Amino acid sequence: MTRIALVTGGIGGLGTAICTRLAQDGYTVVANHHPSEADAAEAWKKDRADAGFSIDTIAADVSSFEDSARMVNEITAHHGPIDILINCAGITRDKTFKKMEAAQWNAVISVNLNSVFNVTRPVWEGMLERGFGRIVNISSVNGQRGQFGQANYSAAKAGMHGFTMALAQEGASKGVTVNTISPGYVETAMTLAMDETVRNSIISGIPMRRMAQPDEIAAAISFLVSDESAYVTGANLPVNGGLFMH
Q1: pLDDT digits (tens, 9 = 90+) for 116-150
Q2: Domains in the chain: how many in total?
Q3: Nearest alpha carbon to residue 178 among 72, 84, 68, 65
């Protein structure tokens, strides 16, 4: 029986690589997107099909517990219960702390951290009952080391791994693993749109002298969700080119 994988934020730059890799690995993949991205999701789905990948898409606001539950119920009804969950949805609202407004703090915490609870909660009991589950939370190097102007983002991303470690203990005896991946800077449309001077400055601080390719992050996820990785849980796997070593 084919396992079902849900990737939140699945039509983004990193999400696309993750969805594609999981489809290559033989999973039935569903990519979540925000309801405001309906047209982009339709075009994305067609592009994946043209590349030979049948990947379904579903709209849901993962910052809403109710909408996340509806999404999970719809996927379960259409495809079957979710075996693999990749919590990848995220936003940034960067500001120095003295200029940060409550709305910027709340938006980032809501989308980046609360979403992890909102989407994981409705799939958790089923995973425990079936005796199999793989949850991977996509954090960030800046959740490990902090980053100037990102008190909201760094807090949310650090919180994701605290969630991982606690939940891993609850799932360990039931065959459900929970892990974190903390990417460094990844070459996506967002980082390529940066001012070249800023981008080069970032790259000069990375020991490998380059950003990660999205496929390199996806490969780490492929490893963690595989049957062979059943003994890896509660871990934070850094994929950052040596930018931060802990």
Answers
A1: 999 999 999 999 999 999 999 999 999 899 999 99
A2: 1
A3: 84
In angstroms, the Cα distances linking 95 to 101, 115, 150 are 9, 22, 7
Structure tokens at 118: 């909102």
With contact defined as beta carbons under 8 Å apart, do 13 and 186 qualify? yes
> What domain range is 146 assigned to?
4-238
CATH (domain of 194): 3.40.50.720
Q: Judge whether 153 counts as a catalytic residue.
A: yes
Residue 243 lies in a domain: no
Contacts of 131 (CB under 8 A, 6+ apart): 174, 175, 176
Strand locations in the chain (E): 4-7, 28-33, 56-59, 84-87, 133-138, 176-183, 236-239
| pLDDT (tens digit per residue) in 199-227 | 999 999 999 999 999 999 999 999 999 99
pTM over 0.85: yes
Strands (E), 36-159: 56-59, 84-87, 133-138
Active-site annotation holder among 27, 153, 185, 231: 153
Determine the residue type at 84. Answer: I
In a domain, 126, yes or no: yes
CB 157, CB 112: distance < 8 Å: yes
